[in-house]
Amino acid sequence: MSARMHLSPAHGAHPQDPGDEQLAYAADLLGLLADRTRLVLLHTLGGGEADVTTLTETCGAARPAVSQHLAKLRLAGLVTVRKEGRRMVYALPDGHLRRLVSEALNLADHHLGSPPASRGEVDPLV
């Protein structure tokens, strides 16, 4: 077997070698995700729509900081927003980002040995 593992698309492997444009986009995306607050926001939105008040309570950051993080995510096209009365409601546009965040957290669980609940810890991302 070669050093490079070939997985079928059913196993989540990208079906082709990425080009420069795809690699640059992926690097920028991962750079945006390299922030604890943004990961909490995206994990929360993976469970469904939420307004800024809910997201602020969930991540424990100050409201202006949460708004700035959401603005960055929105400008990057990673979240959508709609107005509902006086509230701004945020959501993930599709399942790709939800799966990426979930896999990152699964990888963290793997490297840490077990999920937070089985270590007797509270998961800060829930």
CATH architecture of the domain at 34-116: Orthogonal Bundle
Distance between the termini: 40 Å
> How many distinct beta strands?
3
Order of helices and strands: HHEHHEEH
Largest sheet: 3 strands, antiparallel
Which parts are unreliable, with pLDDT below 50 for 5 consecutive residues or more?
1-10
Strand content: 5-15%
What spatial order of strands do you see in the largest sheet? 1-3-2
Q: CATH top level of the domain at 34-116?
A: Mainly Alpha
How would you classify the helix and strand content by structural class?
Answer: mainly alpha
What's the average pLDDT? 86
Described by its quaternary structure, the protein is single chain
Distinct helical segment count: 5
Radius of gyration: 17 Å
The CATH superfamily of the domain at 34-116 appears as Winged helix-like DNA-binding domain superfamily/Winged helix DNA-binding domain
Q: Assign an overall shape.
A: globular
Task: Provide structural commentary.
The protein has a 3-stranded antiparallel beta sheet. It is built from 5 helices and 3 strands; from the N terminus they run ααβααββα. Helix 2 packs across helix 5. With 126 residues, it is mainly α. The protein has a domain of 83 residues: Winged helix-like DNA-binding domain superfamily/Winged helix DNA-binding domain (Arc Repressor Mutant, subunit A), CATH 1.10.10.10. Strand 2 and strand 3 form a beta hairpin. The N terminus is likely disordered.
